[in-house]
Write a structure and sequence with these properties.
The complex is a heterodimer of chains A (about 600) and B (about 375). Helix content of chain A is about 25%, strand content about 35%. Chain A has about 600 residues and is of the alpha+beta class. Chain B is globular. The relative contact order of chain B is 0.12. Classes of the chains: A alpha+beta (about 600), B alpha/beta (about 375).
């Protein structure tokens, strides 16, 4: 049986055609009838379709000849690299999909490296060969230089046109090895995804490595520790297909009355509670949020609703962290932790869209390790909680290894951009005569603002980037406070490098001046470090604002104008006696160098 | 259902107890010799050949409404457009159709206003209008500065204004209003002072002063979006407004509405009815009506209005609360303010506004403070 199973995933950069190829494979194997086919079947969330990325992993089982092919889809963003590594760990092979007009991108490299670490067989595919701008020979050269791939092994394809699809299916059954596993051994199954279902509890997606799993069994999560009784197992088509049992090498799902996804986290090993395996499968990591921000309801009375909403999202998102916090300026809110900026944006958007909440999100920050003079240290995930200057010995911040793939002509601009943001140049490597791979070491805090947008803009959209955490390092950091109308606003404080403090303070007060509407009084906006004011702007008082003309024919229109003006103010948070819009909190993100 | 019955049913169903008499009638005359550069009203140049048919349609509309509503008219207002483009025979037809039946005989003051532009009527025509019972004339002067008149796209110069004013006086008009606009492109405070002094020199009974509003889809709007318009800044605009209030008040005018000034006994009754959120009927293209909390309006197109004999009303079905909101933000435009009991449900807003110095109490009324006058929108928005 094992010899007829192939488990694989697709590694590709955003827009290189992963979802389209998946659609074609499903079509070709008659897994989905033409009638049910809609574009990008696997991206189920609306957000995924809009953003063109896969947030949650998915899996689907196809039948080809007498083989069972399990396609395990992977998230396509650097924020979710841990999830990618677990999806890959559930496979024996990977399709490496590269756009014939673009070439290998930073994330493709990162994910291909992950695949190699997991000993996956890689099937290289050059996609979009039908396009006039396709350069398959150049890409073959790149694949050879970067991965040592034999050009003979490369399949030329166009997922859109269906070119190369039969060859890809043949390669999957011929080149990818069948899984190895023994049904007699104690159960070991790898969870590579899970999601919360309001009716059935958590549905875990897993790959059985050894042993078997079936309804009625008592199971144990080796990482999280919980024990559950299996209610149902099965395989995955577009929906769930119940089955008596799952055997080694099989990919499927598990329902066991688990209430929250954090009780069965991605990467955890499921085993038989009565006859547990000696050790868990390798690679399980506890959650470590990297980026934090505060969420505050615009209307104070919405706090409970916000908490409810975030806890509902958490049922389905084990990497979302939250705890209540209080801000002097914004009142009751939640400090939330995320894998990265995209993760943050998705959560924020879902709160507004799916739960209809109006919230203020403070500027995101990283988590700092503060070494105190009394030789203890403290982790600080909120700039306003930074201990007083006098108590601090040093502050450490997370650093990354940043990899950028860029056209050779933009190398100068990319190096400038990274060094302006405190990046240390490490290495430059030519991928081919036209494209270069640059490596930097750079603080995470410099990446979570507008870095990616700026990188795209200095390279006309051609660069791609990827990063991994390399540890904490001491930096000369200070806390900058913002005062609105002489009152410090804790939610606007930021941590900056001392050398950048003056420039960023000046830029920040300018941006705040633009973002905050005029009031009946003049509002000074100041940036200060300790008690020293380093920048100041004044928002002039509003002097005249009155509908001068209003007669019988104008009334409905004038009322609507007033309603609109009022609605605009409702979208703001009152701090002291100043109405502050969401944009003010984001101003911190757009400060340039 | 027949439109008239539909209207009657709809108005009565909401406010059975309220007497639905209508004290004010607005008649829209959408014809102009030339459209001004700032104007976004319902008006058209070069369609004078439609005037006869239009007047006929006005009368038909009124007759339809007359059978439905209880008219007790105290005021009639011919607005435009340029009503004085019509011939006396047109006014005669309309006024005759309205008939004495509709006029409120118990109220001594009756106000019949016609809006006019300098140069659109000679002394003879003005005399004829006066003789028909029109007793108030509103003159669109806008400014006495010829350069600014040109920018606005007006068809007259400053001399035409004075001449027209004198003609109106000698034709027997004892109640004359002048409209002035300030904060014009490139206008200085000194120029505005001259405008006001010139206007005061003519000794009108009433003055309306507005700052220029750049409305979408007007030539000035296009110039503004092309950045070729130098408008006075907010501070300058405020000074102009302050100066108008001081100067007109000391010249014996009573500042009774945000933009309106009158000699004692000459406040515009027709407009006061709007600000008190009273009932009124508007007839003609684009005209709006308000009866017992219901608002509706006619099609903007002249041709459509003329053709549409079977008139259908789209009456907005807004909740009663909207009518209270409108009562408040309209009523606060009057400097005397509104009686306190009208503000029920808005106690917190009132307290905040008083605290901010935008609203003040005057006996049993709340009214705009001086600061509130300049920042009226911050007050009004609290009541919508």
């Amino acid at each position: 049986m094992l010899s007829k199973i192939r488990n694989f995933s697709i590694i590709a950069h955003i827009d290189h055609g992963k979802s389209t190829l998946a659609d074609r494979l499903l079509e070709y194997t008659h897994t989905i009838s033409k009638r049910d086919m809609r574009e990008q079947v696997l991206d189920t969330m609306d957000l995924e379709r809009e953003r063109g990325i896969t947030i949650k992993a998915q899996a689907i089982r196809m039948l080809y000849k007498d083989y069972i092919l399990n396609l395990i889809d992977t998230p396509g963003h650097v924020d979710f690299s841990y999830e990618v590594s677990r999806s890959l760990a559930a496979c024996e092979g990977a399709l490496l999909l590269v756009d014939a007009t673009q070439g290998v991108e930073a994330q493709t490299l990162a994910n291909a490296n992950l695949a190699r670490q997991n000993n996956l067989v890689i099937i290289p595919i050059i996609n979009k060969v039908d396009l006039p701008a396709a350069e398959p020979e150049r890409i073959k050269e790149e694949l050879k230089n970067i991965f040592g791939i034999d050009p003979e092994d490369v399949i030329l394809a166009s997922a859109k046109e269906g070119i190369g699809v039969p060859e890809i299916l043949e390669a999957i059954i011929k080149r990818i090895p069948s899984p190895i596993g023994e049904v007699e051994k104690p159960l070991q199954a790898l969870i590579f995804d899970s999601h919360y279902d309001a009716f059935r509890g958590v549905i875990a997606y897993l790959r059985v490595v050894n042993g078997k799993i079936k309804a009625g069994m008592q199971i144990k999560m080796m990482g999280a520790g919980g024990e559950f009784e299996v209610q149902e197992v099965g395989t995955l088509k577009l929906g769930l297909i119940p089955k008596d049992e799952l055997l080694p090498g099989e990919v499927g799902y598990l329902v066991a009355g688990v209430r929250e996804v954090k009780e069965c986290r991605v990467g955890d090993t499921v085993t038989d509670a009565k006859q547990p395996a000696h050790h868990a499968l390798p690679g399980y990591k506890p959650i470590k949020p990297m980026v934090f921000c505060g969420f505050y309801p615009l209307a104070g009375e919405d706090f409970e609703n916000l908490k409810d909403a975030v806890s509902k999202l958490q049922l389905n998102d084990a990497s979302l962290f939250y705890e209540p916090e209080t801000s002097a300026a914004l009142g009751f809110g939640l400090r939330c932790g995320f894998l990265g900026l995209l993760h943050l944006e998705i959560v924020q958007e879902r709160l507004e869209r799916e739960f209809n909440l109006s919230i203020i999100a403070t500027a995101p920050n990283v988590i700092y390790k503060v070494n105190l003079r009394d030789k203890t240290h403290r982790l600080v995930d909120n700039p306003s909680r930074m201990p007083p200057l006098a108590e601090i010995e040093s502050i450490e911040e997370p650093f990354l290894k940043l990899t950028v793939f860029t056209p050779a002509e933009n190398v100068g601009a990319v190096i400038d951009l990274a060094t302006e943001r405190r990046g240390q140049f490490v290495n430059l490597e030519y991928l081919d005569p036209k494209r270069v791979m640059l490596t930097f070491e750079i603080p995470l805090s410099e990446i979570i603002s507008e870095f990616h947008d700026l990188l795209k803009s200095v390279t006309r959209g051609y660069a791609s980037m990827d990063y991994e955490l390399i540890g904490y390092r001491v930096s000369d950091l200070v806390k900058m406070e913002i005062l609105l109308n002489q009152e410090p606003v804790d939610a606007l404080s930021i941590i900056v490098h001392r050398d950048q403090a003056f420039y960023r303070g000046k830029k920040l007060v300018e941006k705040l001046k633009e973002a905050i509407p005029r009031h009946q009084f003049q509002i000074p906006v100041q940036a200060s470090i300790g008690s020293k004011v380093i920048a100041r702007e004044n928002i002039a008082a509003l002097r005249k604002n009155v509908l001068q003309k209003c007669y019988g024919g104008d009334i409905t229109r004038k009322r609507k104008l007033l309603e609109k003006q009022k609605a605009g103010k409702k979208r703001m948070k009152r701090i002291g006696n100043v109405d502050v819009p969401q944009e003010a909190f984001l101003a911190v993100l757009r400060l340039g160098k | 259902m027949e439109p008239a019955n539909e209207l009657r049913g709809s108005i009565k169903s909401r406010n059975r107890d309220v007497q639905s008499s209508v004290p004010s009638l607005y008649i829209h005359i959408p014809f102009c010799k030339k459209k001004c550069n700032y104007c976004d009203f319902v008006s058209c140049a070069g369609k004078e050949e439609l005037i006869d048919e239009y007047v006929y349609a006005l009368i038909r509309e009124f007759e339809l409404l007359f059978s439905t509503l209880d008219f007790q008219l105290s005021t009639i207002y011919f607005g435009g457009g340029t009503p004085t483009l019509l011939e006396p025979k047109h006014f005669e037809k309309i006024l005759k159709a309205l008939g004495n039946r509709t006029l409120n005989v118990e109220r001594r003051t009756q106000e019949v206003t016609v809006e006019s532009n300098p140069g659109t009527a000679d002394k003879e025509k003005l005399k004829a209008l006066r003789k028909l019972g029109i007793n108030r004339i509103s003159i669109g002067a806008q400014t006495f500065n010829d350069r600014h008149l040109k920018t606005l796209g007006r068809i007259h110069n400053s001399k035409d204004i004075s001449r027209f004013y004198d003609d109106a006086r000698s034709a027997g008009f004892e109640n004359i209003n002048l409209d002035l606009i300030f904060a014009l492109p490139n206008q200085t405070l000194a120029e505005w002072k001259v405008d006001l002094q010139t206007a005061i020199g003519l000794e009108p009974n009433h003055l309306s002063t507005y700052n220029l509003q750049i409305e979408e889809n007007t030539p000035l709007y296009l110039r503004q979006t092309a950045n070729s318009l130098q408008l006075p800044g907010e501070e300058e605009e405020l000074k102009m407004y302050e100066y108008a209030i001081e100067t007109l008040t000391s010249a014996g005018f009573n500042h009774y509405e945000i933009s309106n000034f009158a000699k004692p006994g000459f406040q515009c009754l027709h407009n006061i009815n709007y600000w008190k959120n009273g009932n009124y009927i508007g007839i003609g293209a684009g005209a709006h009506s308000h009866v017992n909390g219901k608002r509706w309006s006619n099609p903007n197109s002249i041709e459509e209005y003329i053709a549409n004999h079977e008139r259908r009303f789209t009456i907005n079905d807004s909740p009663d609360s909207i009518d209270q909101h409108e009562t408040l933000f309209l009523g606060l435009r009057l400097l005397e303010g509104l009686s306190i009991d009208k503000f029920s449900g808005f106690e917190q807003e009132v307290a905040e506004l008083i605290n901010d110095g935008l609203l003040e109490r005057d006996g049993d009324r709340y009214k705009l403070s001086k600061k509130g006058l300049y920042l009226g929108n911050l007050v009004f928005e609290k009541f919508v």
